[in-house]
Design a protein that fits this description.
Low-confidence stretches: 347-360
Shape: elongated
Structural class: alpha+beta
Helix content: 40-55%
Number of domains: 2
Number of strands: 14
Amino acid sequence: MGQRRLRSTLAALGVIIGIGAIIGLLSLSQGFQDTITGQIERGFGLDTLVVIPGGFGPGGPSFRLDIDDTQLISILDGVDLSTAIVAGQAGLSKGEHSVQVTVSGVDFEAYSAVQSDLFSAESGSIPTDPSSDVIVLGHGVAHPRDPDIESLASVGDDVVMSVATRQADAIVVKNYTFTVSAILEEVGGISGANLDNTAFIPSEVATDIFDTSEAAVILVVIDDISMVDEISDEIEDIFQNQVLVISPTAFIELTEPIFRSIDLFLGGIAGIALLVAGIGIMNIMIVSVVERTREIGILKALGATSRTILGMFLSEAILIGVIGGIVGILFGMGLSEVIAQVLSQGFGFQSFGGDFPSPPTLQIAPAFRPLTIIGGFSFAVIISTIFGLYPAWRAAKKEPMEALHYG
C-alpha cells in the first residue's frame, strides 16, 4: 500500500466519503431530533398539558373555551394549577416607531409558574400583582432582530397599544397606554418563537380590550407525569370531547417513529455511497492482483501458501476499510458541524416587510451517538472485507508457474 499510495488513497477515499455521509447525515438528524425534543420539553414541561378548542371547521373551532373553564380543570385530582391565555393582535407604538404583535392576556403569577424557564425578565421585573396599565414585552418585540429596525422601548417607557374593533359597519381603532414593566430574555427556537414576539398584559385587561372572555388555550400543570393520559381523558370528558389535550410526552412519542424513518432514509442514501466505494475497492484490488501476478508467483515459489496470499490481499482491503472508517468518521463529524452552523444561521426568516419582529433561529447541534460511530466504522470494515474477498481469492488461486511467466 505504501508503494501504491495514489491507488490506496483513491480506494480509501470512497470509504471516507461513504462513512462521512453516514456519520454526518445521521448525527444531524439525531441532533435535530434532540433539539426539537429539548425545545418541546423546555417550552412546556413534561408535566404540562395544553388544552385547545376542538372540532375545527371551515369557520374555525365550533367549541370555545372560556377563561372560567380553568375552575373546572383545577378541581381534578392530580392537577396542580391551570391558567388561561386570552390572545389577540394589536399594534404597539412609541413615537413614530410601531410593530405588529401578538398580545397575550395572562395571570402573571400563574404563567410564571408554568413557564418558569422561559418567562424570565432580562430587564425590569415581572409583576405578581400587576396594575391595569403594565405590559411585559418579549425580547423580539422590544429588540427586533432586523438591524434596520430600532428598538421599540425600554423598561419604564410608555407604549401605545392600538386595537381595531368592529362597531356596526365601521372599523374603529382604540388606543391604550401601557408602561413597560419588563423585557423578557431572548428564548429563541421553536418553543420561544411565540414568547419572543409577544406582548403580555393582565388577563382581566385583555378581556376588556378584546371584548371577549374566550381563552385561546388553557395550560394545565399536573403533579405526576405518569398521570398524563388519565388526566387528559378526564379533561376531554369534562368538555364532552370538544377540546384537544396535547401533552409534550405524547408529541415526543409521535415524532420518534418519524425521525427513525428519516434516519433509515438518510442511512440508506449514505449506504449506497458506501456500496459504490466497495465496488471501487474491488476494482482497484483486482487491478492490483493483475499487476502483482509475477510477485505472487515468486512468493508461491518461495513457499507461500494460498492462504498466505489470500490473507495478504484481504488484509490490504481490511486496512483500507479501517483507515477509511476512521478518517470518514472525523470527516463526517466536521461536515455535520459545518452544515449545522449553516442551518442554524439560516433557519429563521427575515421580516416580511414593515416593522414586524423576525422569528428567532433554531440552533442545531449534531448528536454523535456511540452506536452510530461504532456502526459506521464496522460498516466500513465489513464492506471493504466483502469487496476485497474476490480479488484476494483470485490472487490465492494463481498457479506459481503461470504467475512467474506473466508479463
